[in-house]
Amino acid sequence: MTLPLPLPKSREEIRAIQRERKRIAFARAKQIPWYRGRLDHIDADRLDDPAEWSKIPILDKESLRQLNHDEFLRQFCCAPATEIAEYWRSGGTTGTPVFYPRTHADIRYGLNAWGRSFPCMGIGAGDLCHIAFPIGIHPAGQVWARSAHLFDVGMIWAGAGNACPSEVQLRLIQTLKPTVFMGMSSFALHLANLAAATGLDLAACSVRKVVCSAETLSDAKREKIGRMWGAEVYDVFGMSEAGLMGAENAAHDGIHVWTDMYYVEAVDPDTGKPVPEGEIGTLCVTPLWTNHATPFLRWNSGDVIRLYEKSAGSGIWAELFPIIRHAHRTTGFFKIRGVNINHAEFEDLMFRQSAVNDFQAVLQTDPASGREEIKILIEIARDLDGAAICAHVADHVKKTFEVSPLVEVLPLGTLATEFERSVKAPRFVDRRE
Fold first, then answer.
1. Separation of alpha carbons 385 and 392, rounded Å
2. 4: in domain
3. Same domain, 364 and 274
4. Mind listing the pLDDT tens digit for each residue in 259-297?
């Protein structure tokens, strides 16, 4: 298949594509019932004026989740059923999932968007990728795997751990010798810990690049994955509402966004107006090509980002595309004894503990006192002093979050067995009564 959208030659060409495609996106949106009456005050000839564009109402997930599937199709779909090629499931872990119809044209542009990530990350002919994302109605795994053939990249369709057991995945890596591992960061850590528990040195295996997505990749988690795999770690970003939107290149200073395929904004969550470059804002996305069935305008993804026009890197990707850096997620925290603890910050602290291979935080209620407490279950390398490490971890958590935890060492492989049953590792479990 010929790529429907070759890489643009310049940022000026990208601006020209945006001018044309924003008008097409706007015209398609006016066809669907949800936007009826919501766009009448906007001048379609002035969409390149930021003040005019910002009048378009921001669309968020709650607007979709209050609809059942039939209502969603009636309100948001502008393509007849005969043109639908497949459905993509929304990627969130909370609330009712949404199933987005995609036309055959959407799929062609989707393959284009996912496939671009390979050359951006320096992956090409001669590379063999082991993909451990779910292979199914969520698009990340199956569309990515299919797109590899357009870029002469080899692919092992392993799938997630709940479909292909982790022990089998490790045997595949040993046997087939892929050069790239692609999966959620939590699963990359899970496999590394399972390998350590069974005496396999992943850093000595064939994988030289690890590609992560679908979860926040903190610096601490990146360093730990890189150390345990002996590999360079890349982050990519996308969403079912749009497609794969960008990837890191060798500079690793942000994710280059395909702005000829997606019009992106960092906006003030209260006003909907763009924030200055480098300031924190909510990410809004308008798909320019994957919008044949669901023409979303200014989709609020829930990501909190900083947007920069230039990367510190060099080469065609840095020349063409701006970068985004995630600031933090709007969700992912728990409260215990009146203290809010952000999941990402807690993960960061734990992954910087060099003696800790893996962990799980369990919120529970003491049956005797009825007091809320947090227990941290950890796995450590063999022959280390468990008591000393527990005390060290408890002290760091207390100093950082002002909460004294219980810390318990588990036998190696215990958490791997539990995490095996889930696509995303349940590192935070609430068992309070």
1. 11
2. no
3. no
4. 999 999 999 988 889 999 999 999 999 999 999 999 999
